[in-house]
Amino acid sequence: MSELTSKTCASADSMHEAALKAKVVLEALPYIRQFHGQTIVIKYGGHAMVDETLKRQFALNVILLKYIGLNPVIVHGGGPQIGDMLKKLNIVSQFRDGLRITDEATMDVVEMVLVGKVNKQIVNQLNLQGAKAVGLSGKDGQLIKARKLEMVLERKDMPPEIIDLGKVGEVLEINTKLIASLEREGFIPVIAPVGVDDEGETYNINADSVAGAVAGALKAKRLILLTDVAGILDKDKRLISSMNERQAMQAIENGTVTGGMIPKIKCCLEAIHSGVEKAHILDGRLENSLVLELFTMGGIGSEIVAG
Ligand SMILES: Nc1ncnc2c1ncn2[C@@H]1O[C@H](COP(=O)(O)OP(=O)(O)O)[C@@H](O)[C@H]1O
Ligand SMILES: CC(=O)N[C@@H](CCC(=O)OP(=O)(O)O)C(=O)O
């Protein structure tokens, strides 16, 4: 009798669990419907590539998006990975306003690590899990046309200072036709943030900027930046779930947001300005963060919306 009771309980438990799972799947239905056929640009930052489990989870999340009818486009970073390689080669690297000062030798290492290593690891991981992923640098099909970035520092009562960052570039144009044709054939484009100009010069571009430019050029439904914090935090370090363009600008102006978060928010704002509906910033170190952000009511990170 007691055995029967415990069996009955076990099966009631598993029924309950199964019912919960079905509920979770069904709750995602309105979001799946909303995003079906839409392009989602995901910036996969170097700090979010923590370990093999997390890398595999990321690939599975992206593949799920593809299978349910979204068009994920990945733009990846790899700042920490570049840093490690430069250290091994005894090349000192310096940053100015979050951008790596890039001389010829550093450019070679940046391209080698981003295109030759990080890009291929992501492509490999996606393909191993059943996707058709294609790795591209900005040189392939002239995907990212770039020019040298002119950093101008305004100074009070003095002429502005021009800062030479070497081979750091900014995006001029994205070859959207190439991305669209890959999408049509069911491929997931995986893009390394290396650009090229008309003379064939190579440029190192911040991956957030490339992701913003790709999202804007594709008029993506969403731009998602995966980083190493929960999202945009207020002065008391509490997560701000949602803010509009005006509030985001204020957060920069009043110093709530500093350091690497400033260019992130700026590229979200530019993307929204170019027609992207919403931009999200979330913690890529959290398992299944992409699915949780896109398919649950409140999401887990911060969103920036027009207005
Ligand atoms: N208000 C803020 N909310 C969240 N992060 C902030 C804020 N202000 C500054 N930051 C910093 O911005 C960092 C994210 O930028 P960055 O290090 O460039 O990320 P990534 O390497 O992923 O591109 C956070 O780790 C945090 O230290
Ligand atoms: C000009 C510039 O700074 N380029 C970056 C490109 C990689 C990047 O942006 O990677 P994360 O997103 O992982 O930081 C760099 O050299 O580190």
Given this structure, which CATH class is correct? Alpha Beta
Could you say what the CATH topology is called?
Carbamate kinase
Q: How many E strands?
A: 16
N-to-C terminal Cα separation, in Å? 65 Å
Protein name: Acetylglutamate kinase
Site (Transition state stabilizer): 43, 264
Binding site for substrate: 78-79, 100, 204
EC number: 2.7.2.8
Task: Provide keyphrases for this structure.
single chain; 307 residues; alpha/beta; Carbamate kinase; two-stranded antiparallel ribbon; 10 helices; globular; binds adenosine-5'-diphosphate; binds N-acetyl-L-glutamyl 5-phosphate
Structural write-up:
Its EC number is 2.7.2.8. Residues 39-283 form the Aspartate/glutamate/uridylate kinase domain. It catalyses: N-acetyl-L-glutamate + ATP = N-acetyl-L-glutamyl 5-phosphate + ADP. Helix content is 44%, strand content 24%. The protein has 307 residues and is α/β, with parallel strands linked by helices. It has one domain (35-305): Carbamate kinase (3-Layer(aba) Sandwich), CATH 3.40.1160.10. The strands form five sheets. The chain has an eight-stranded mixed sheet, with helices on both faces. Strand 1, helix 3 and strand 2 form a beta-alpha-beta unit. Helix 7 (207-218) packs parallel to helix 9. It is globular and about 75 Å long. The site of adenosine-5'-diphosphate has 18 residues, from helix 9.
